[in-house]
């Protein structure tokens, strides 16, 4: 495959990723677990099943799957017996009527949490679903007990932001997703983001070796702010810093990123937009 063809396919998929449209939520066909309550922060979305195996899907982010970062949990039942050891795999894939399919960033494995009563992790959806672009999920427990190719929906999310770019001097596509703040306020705000790279747009790898340098800027007033704290790695691709928005209005937050001492972001770098109240 020629370099020009690869670049053309990247441009096609990148354009598709930005063309986010609404799709209605999938129908819930679940059975509630009365004897095994879930942490009240999580909302049950739906269940999927096959003979002898059932997965219940929960979200801490909202009542649906949203474009952007979603904190999710799963319950597993084998012959109606709830499982609480081992791990769960969740593999979401989007198929398009025209063009190649693709994956999305997701926890490599979901492990059981006693505090939530769920196998917990995250998924960062990069596109909405619609009638020509549809999300399907594969579910597995301890390397088996598969439930495959079950459709679900992803809808818009308020305050969710992400940015794709081709790494400087690299063939890797990078994705930075804002985790917080969703609703920025005047003063110091925790800034959390998660960084991934992908070579094939199916498997997204968490990037833990990056260094980030942020700058806040208020374009309408032509000034920035002090007391920002550059994000540091928390592991699993997650970074946390502090953004200082000193007054109400629209702010830009620039994020320049290096990996192994070299900048992977363009110059000038991209920014996220926050409407500060």
User: Unreliable stretches, pLDDT < 50, 5 or more residues?
Assistant: 1-12, 14-35
Q: Counting H and I runs of at least 4 residues, what is the number of helices?
A: 1
- How is the quaternary structure best described? single chain
Per CATH, which architecture of the largest domain? Sandwich
Describe the structure.
The chain is mainly β and 277 residues long. The protein has two domains: 20-155, Sandwich (Immunoglobulin-like); 162-276, Immunoglobulins (Immunoglobulin-like), CATH 2.60.40. It contains one helix and 22 strands. Strand 20 and strand 21 form a beta hairpin. The radius of gyration is 20 Å and the shape is globular.
Supply the key terms:
6% helix, Immunoglobulin-like, single chain, disordered N terminus, mainly beta, 277 residues, nine-stranded antiparallel beta sheet, 2 domains, globular, 22 strands
Quick take:
The chain folds into two domains: 20-155, Immunoglobulin-like, CATH 2.60.40; 162-276, Immunoglobulins (Immunoglobulin-like, Sandwich), CATH 2.60.40.10. The chain starts with a helix and ends with a strand. The protein has one helix at 3-18; strands spanning 43-50, 53-59, 65-66, 68-78, 81-83, 87-96, 110-113, 118-125, 133-141, 144-152, 154-155, 162-166, 173-180, 187-198, 205-206, 210-218, 223-224, 229-235, 238-245, 249-259, 262-263, 271-276.
């Amino acid at each position: 495959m020629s370099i020009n063809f690869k670049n053309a396919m990247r441009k096609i998929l990148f354009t598709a990723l930005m063309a986010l449209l609404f799709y209605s939520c999938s129908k819930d066909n679940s059975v509630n677990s009365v004897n095994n309550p879930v942490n009240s922060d999580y909302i049950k979305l739906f269940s999927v099943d096959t003979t002898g195996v059932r997965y219940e899907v929960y979200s801490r982010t909202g009542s649906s799957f949203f474009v952007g970062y979603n904190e999710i949990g799963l319950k597993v039942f084998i012959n109606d017996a709830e499982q609480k050891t081992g791990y769960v795999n969740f593999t979401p894939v989007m198929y398009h009527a025209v063009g190649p399919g693709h994956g999305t960033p997701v926890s490599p494995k979901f492990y059981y949490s006693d505090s939530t009563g769920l196998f917990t992790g995250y998924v960062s959806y990069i596109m909405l679903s619609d009638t020509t672009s549809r999300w399907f999920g594969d579910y597995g427990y301890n390397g088996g007990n598969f439930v495959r190719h079950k459709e679900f929906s992803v809808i818009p999310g308020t305050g969710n932001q992400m940015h794709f770019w081709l790494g400087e001097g690299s063939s890797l596509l990078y994705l930075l997703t804002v985790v917080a703040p969703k609703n920025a306020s005047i003063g110091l705000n925790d800034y959390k983001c998660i960084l991934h790279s992908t070579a094939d747009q199916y498997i997204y790898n968490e990037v833990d070796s990056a260094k980030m340098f942020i700058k806040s800027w208020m374009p309408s007033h032509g000034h920035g702010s002090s007391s920002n704290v550059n994000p540091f790695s928390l592991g699993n691709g997650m970074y946390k810093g502090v953004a200082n928005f000193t007054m109400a209005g629209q702010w830009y937050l620039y994020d320049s990123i290096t990996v192994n001492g070299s900048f992977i972001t363009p110059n000038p770098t991209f920014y996220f937009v926050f409407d500060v109240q």
